[in-house]
Amino acid sequence: MTAYLSSSPAERDSTDAQTAYGTLDTHVLDRETGLCLVCLTPGPCRPANAAANRLVALGRQVLAPEPAQPRSGGWHGWPDTLRRYLARTAPLLTAARRRRLSTTATAPKT
Q1: First-to-last CA distance in the chain?
Q2: Number of domains into which the chain is organized
Q3: Of 11, 47, 68, 81, which has the fewest beta carbons less than 10 angstroms from its beta carbon?
Q4: Dist. CA 11–CA 13, nearest whole Å
Q5: Domain assignment present for 51
């Protein structure tokens, strides 16, 4: 933990998060050997783990969010519009059937 002179808890958390992000940016694994480029230890090193744990304790995201994939309008939209259409027409059909079935049959005139 770092010693702070005079700052609010929010400023301390922000400073800790920036420090943790900086640590994660520098302690990166080599793709070929799997060693940390700073510590030269295999796998995720202790400083990187400590930085990730601090970010989790602060409630921050450890990894950068993935960008949203753009959706094409092709086949993705029609089931939803069909579902909305059917949801609207079903009560009307039910009301029409009730009206038709509730009428009394009249005797034919002779």
Answers
A1: 102
A2: 1
A3: 68
A4: 5
A5: yes
- pTM beyond cutoff 0.90: no
CA nearest to 60, candidates 7, 10, 6: 10
Range of the domain at 22: 9-58
16 falls within a domain: yes
pLDDT at position 90 is 53
How many other CB atoms are found less than 10 A from the CB of residue 21?
17
Q: Averaged in consecutive runs of 10 residues, what is the pLDDT profile of the chain (110 residues)?
A: 66 89 91 91 91 92 75 59 56 66 61
Cα separation, 28 vs 25, whole angstroms:
7
CA atoms of 9 and 34, how far apart (whole Å): 37
- Give the up-direction half-sphere exposure of residue 73: CA atoms within 13 A in the CB hemisphere: 1
60: region left, alpha or beta (phi > 0 left; psi from -120 to 50 alpha)? beta
Tokens 């990894």 correspond to 63
